[in-house]
Amino acid sequence: MNNIERFKELINSINRPGVDKLMNFIEKSDFFTAPASTKYHLSCEGGLLQHSLNVYDMLKAKSEQEPFTSKFAKITDENIIVVALLHDLCKTYFYKVSTRNAKNEQTGQWEKVPYYSIDDKVPYGHGEKSVMMIEKYIPLTNEERYSIRWHMGFSEPKEHYSMLSAALKKYPLLLALMEADLEASYLIEDRDDNKPEPPKQEMDFEPCN
User: Fold this and answer.
1) CA 183, CA 193: separation in Å to the nearest integer?
2) Measured between alpha carbons, how far is 120 from 135 in angstroms, rounded to an integer?
3) What are phi and psi of 151, to 5 degrees?
4) pTM for the full model?
């Protein structure tokens, strides 16, 4: 199953009015082809889709481990799907392909090369923009709403820290989503693809009995 098929299957498992309209918007947008960033993680075609699925996988794994298992008594698979796959919906129609001059190291010639730049057509913030866009189509629970709104964590402006801290105390899903987002970005993803899995190390000694 490719990334688009997997994403659609997960989204279509959400049992809420408007899911069909949400999926129709996503399919008509650049969500499946957009990068996840301009130059940091998954700055490549399809990067946003890959990142969203990576965050889902990380968040799903967290939900099955302590301390989150006991904190997630009322959190469903649907909640996890919603916040993980849609937290960066704000990045649709956000990037554009531009060109710049760069020196070809092999030929020594200067060439025009493509790169991603930001062209924010809906300047409404980040997490709050995702919430606004999602709720045009489907309703969100309070925990989903706060989790998506504050998922950028302490990269928010310092004057927002008190509100962020208050939200973290109320909603464990927010903390888990923040962590899953960071782990996917820094541990799983490279600039052009997911990082290869490290080779398993062979034991070069006999274990003690």
Assistant:
1) 15
2) 19
3) -65, -15
4) 0.90
pLDDT tens digits along 9-57: 999 999 999 999 999 999 999 999 999 999 888 999 999 999 999 999 9
Q: How far apart are CA 150 and CA 129, in angstroms?
A: 11
Q: Map tokens 């649709």 to a residue.
A: 92
Please indicate, yes or no, if residue 23 is contained in any of the structural domains. Answer: yes
**SS3 (DSSP) at 84:** helix
CB atoms near residue 143 (< 10 Å) = 20
Structural domain contains residue 60: yes
Length of the chain: 209
What is the 8-class DSSP label of residue 63?
H
Closest residue by Cα to residue 180 from 53, 72, 71, 8: 53
Nearest of 160, 110, 79 to residue 68 by alpha carbon = 79
Q: Which two tokens stand for residue 203?
A: 């034991």
* Within a domain: 174: yes
